[in-house]
Design a protein that fits this description.
This protein has 371 residues and is α+β, with helices and mostly antiparallel strands. 37% of the residues lie in helices and 19% in strands. The protein has two domains: 15-176, no CATH class; 186-359. It has nine helices and 14 strands. Helix 1 crosses helix 3 and helix 4 packs antiparallel against helix 5 (229-257). The two termini are 33 Å apart.
């Protein structure tokens, strides 16, 4: 394919990446105040959308909200005009995503208070001398800069609050994409509940499910019955942090070791509606796959989510559908194929089938090594 003459030949391909940094607690009061006004803008857009729908049966886009919010900053709302635009655009995006006429109201006070959230555009933010200057906030924001923001071109993002009242900035930056990895083996991954991950590579041992929530369930229940809200939030944060740390370590290890990674597209949202809901949420499959996706993209590793239907039942040697079936056979961890006589580990066999299906999706010319 001929090169576009307008594109410099040596210009690197850039990826969009989100950096998350913690803002120092001394700014919490002013950020909560701005978040309260952000909630008011969100609720105004929510109410306006319902009125327009009742009168005209029409859905508003982010551009359609602009005439209604124009000049709001001059009417006493302490938010920059670009922040107000970002809120209305985000509302339109989420309404379209969830296919609803009305979204949830954002509450600023009370027990069901919405966590603070303030979006911003790239032009509303600047970084100088280790501090962030944001339009609509008079004082600079101090933060723990663990990434070195001065070396990046800052993009759009948002300020967000967690359950413990700590504030973070989530900001998009551009990073150079690595060249595709060549000469490394590929691997298939089957995600589950008894074993968090089964691998097609026999060199790797299956990773047992860690059960972070189950391990803290007794302590969490005692804190909830004693109505120690701060302790409850602290326990939940510790559970989430331990899970995230495990996912980070495992995903980084896999990305450094393999040139192509294929993972089953297990449907967590459907399993959450069953009796296995706690275990599914505790596993955090979606978070792990997201980490694998962006780390592979940054490292030049091929990543693909593969249809895992019948991967447990199909024999990875002769491809006969002779394995354990249904809920009644969930406890069967090993089985022998009656057609070829091969003995299988349930999760490793599924991972091998996922690897085989993943290889079929590879574009011609991308090398990989057989396991």
């Amino acid at each position: 394919m001929p090169r576009d003459s307008s594109t410099p030949p040596n210009k690197p391909v850039l990826n969009t990446r989100v950096l998350r940094l913690r803002i120092k607690d001394k700014h919490a009061a002013v950020l909560r105040d701005r978040a309260m006004w952000a909630n008011q803008v969100w609720n105004y857009c929510n109410d306006l959308q319902q009125q327009v729908w009742r009168r005209e049966k029409r859905l508003l886009s982010g551009y359609d909200f602009a005439p209604f919010t124009k000049g709001a900053g001059k009417e006493g709302i302490p938010l920059h005009s670009q922040t107000i635009q970002a809120i209305s655009e985000e509302y339109a995006t989420r309404r379209k995503q969830f296919k609803k006429i009305k979204l949830r109201w954002r509450v600023s006070r009370g027990n069901k208070r919405s966590l603070g959230w303030i979006p911003f555009k790239a032009s509303a933010l600047s970084y100088r001398n280790g501090q962030l200057w944001m339009s609509g906030i008079d004082t600079p924001l101090c933060l723990w800069d663990s990434y070195g923001l001065s070396q990046y071109q800052l993009g759009a993002g948002n300020l967000s609050e967690d359950a413990r009242g700590r504030w973070y900035i989530n900001i998009t930056v551009k990073v150079a994409r690595q060249a595709p990895v060549e000469g490394k083996a590929d691997v298939g991954i089957d995600l589950g509940l008894k074993d968090f991950a089964g691998f097609s590579d026999p060199v790797l041992d299956n990773v047992e499910a860690q059960k972070y929530y189950r391990g803290a369930e007794v302590k969490l229940g005692m804190a909830q019955r004693a109505k120690k809200k701060r302790l409850v939030k602290s326990i939940h944060a510790k559970i989430a942090n331990r899970r995230k740390d495990h996912h980070h370590q495992l995903s980084t290890k896999l990305v450094r070791r393999y040139g192509a990674i294929f993972v089953g597209n297990v449907n967590a949202s459907s399993l959450v509606k069953t009796k296995m809901a706690k275990s599914v949420l505790d596993a955090g499959w979606s978070q792990f796959r997201t980490m694998l996706s962006y780390k592979c993209d940054d490292a030049g590793v091929w990543f693909e989510e593969v249809n895992e239907a019948y991967s447990t039942q199909d024999c990875s040697v002769c491809f006969a559908r002779s394995g354990p079936k249904g809920l009644k056979d969930l406890g069967i961890r090993e089985w022998t194929c009656p057609h070829c006589g091969t003995m299988h580990d349930r999760d490793r066999n599924a991972a091998k089938n996922i690897l085989r299906r993943g290889r079929a999706t590879l574009v011609a010319g991308i090398p990989f090594l057989s396991v």
